[in-house]
Write a structure and sequence with these properties.
The complex is a heterodimer of chains A (65) and B (565). With 65 residues, chain A is mainly alpha-helical. Chain A contains 2 helices and no strands. In chain A, 71% of the residues lie in helices and 0% in strands. Chain B contains 22 helices and 2 strands. The chains are: A mainly alpha (65), B mainly alpha (565). At the A-B interface, helix 1 and helix 2 of A face helix 1 and helix 8 of B.
Chain lengths: 65, 565
Amino acid sequence: MGLDLRLPIGALFIALGLVLIIYGAVSDPAIYARSFGINVNLAWGCVLLVFGLAMLAASRRGAAK
Amino acid sequence: MTLTFVDGLIIGLYLLVVVAIGLALRQRTKTSEDFFLSGRSIPAWVAGLAFMSANMGAQEVVGMAASGAKYGLMTSHFYWVGAIPAMVFLGLFMMPLYYGSRARSVPEYLKLRFDEKTRLLNAASFAFMTIVSSGISLYAMGLLLNLLLGWPFDLSIWLWAGIVLLYVFMGGLTSGIYNEVLQFFLIVFGFAPLVILGLVDIGGWSGLMASLSDVSLQRGFPADALTTVWRHAGSAADNPLGVGWFGITMGLGFVLSFGYWCTDFLLVQRAMAAHSLSAARQAPIIAAIPKLLFPALVILPGMIAIGLTHRTGGISFPLKPDGSLNYDLAMPLMLARYLPTGLLGLGITALMASFMSGMAGNVTAFNTVWTYDLYQAHIRPNASDRHYLNIGRIATVAGVLLSIAAAYLAARFNNIMDLLQLVFAFVNAPLFATFLLGMFWKRTTGHGAFAGLLMGTVGAALHHGLTIPAHAIAGIKGGWLAILHTYPSEMAQNFSTAIVAWTTCFLVTILVSLVTASRPAEQLTGLVYSLTARPREQPVTGLFNPSLLAPLVLGAALLLNLLFW
């Protein structure tokens, strides 16, 4: 269809990752009592960011071919 | 549960991308085939993931967690016995006929293979049913968001239906497919933290088994009944499903699953949109890979939730009016328990995404069947392509408005919706027999197919009218004619109804076909398996070659069954 779907997926997950990482960095540690003291926003934000970047990279590689 | 600014931001980002995709696709949607079939241009992995998530509406997500809480690990029969073999069969044997015949819809295949009346029967019941199920899922979403977040029911319904309308109107099926793939990743990343935290909390798999054995014993089942898939399938009374191995393999595994995965246009449409025959064949088989693992994401949370009910400081399920546990809340309860602000927004976004793409799936299937199989076939045959594209867009608006109406109907009269779903179950149950005979026995005739479908539906209704599940009152649950047999559970009765419908349709189709004239073989090329040349495909290298991937997927399903025996 001409629009590479990996592009919007990559963009969305990079944005979501950044939001979670920034929020994880500034949020009150008390809210992580429910996740056994682990700052899950920070940790999972990194996972989303990596996934988003991988999607973008795959999209660029596909476009270069 | 309250949402903060960050949660709102996450939901907002998702909605932004959804609308942006629609806008980007708007200019690329020029012909009716672009709108209804994505111009047959979708890559295999996109079609595959869309195929997998088109079925993953939020009702399914919430419902699978509920079943996990109620039936335990046996719920995975819907995946490892039900879905996987049917998806592989569709990819290997049926897609060459659906795709190769150039039919634009499943009803159109019936028209090409049989005749107009068979298509009309299938198209009309399918179009009506997609609207009803889209309305029911809209209603369920309004209810859930009201319960969880206190959002007004009317606002949710109009807002979400409006967004679905916006993006389907602009990009047609491609919008639908792209958002389904987006939803797939949101579900994976939205629910995975929940499962990880839940497993840590309950003490891993062994902790879960220990907690669930208490629940199981308390309900009067063997201790491991909620954590094994086959061990207690020997007797229906010993397992929480209330169904024995014959019902599971024949009713669920064969009749219901093959009927659903191989003939439901909502799903098949995704594979039909693929850019080539080999991609169309790969799509359902690629879809089977995540399907193998999804029980961990959608069933496991329900099992953890019910396991935690036996722990101090654990979870307590609210009760339904009849005093039973409200299992439907398993997933929301888990979201609320483990996810802090931030990840909670992601989890809620995943739920909303699955609601919307479930509805969009119904709407895209509806507008296609309406335009091609009802409007073009019966109302205005020879109009321009532009005209059919416009009709498709109008049908999209109409489909969304009708879904909203159906949602309000469901809110006012729950019984009507139950009744409609029951009737559709009767109509759908025999379908796979018709396709199996049509595709693999060249002697099958149009009259045979039509008579078989009708009699199969009658057979299903009769079986339902003459039997009843234990502890039920005669009426919508069955036994409305007489009670000749009592089943241990509602599911056991459903599976038997399906088997009866399928067998009736199979036999009647054969008998009527034998006494009516069949079409000459040259007219059936491309429509019947034995008369269709083996597709000369672009050789697919590597793992995604269907004939390599299919045995791998089936082997993995077998392994999972053995592992959790």
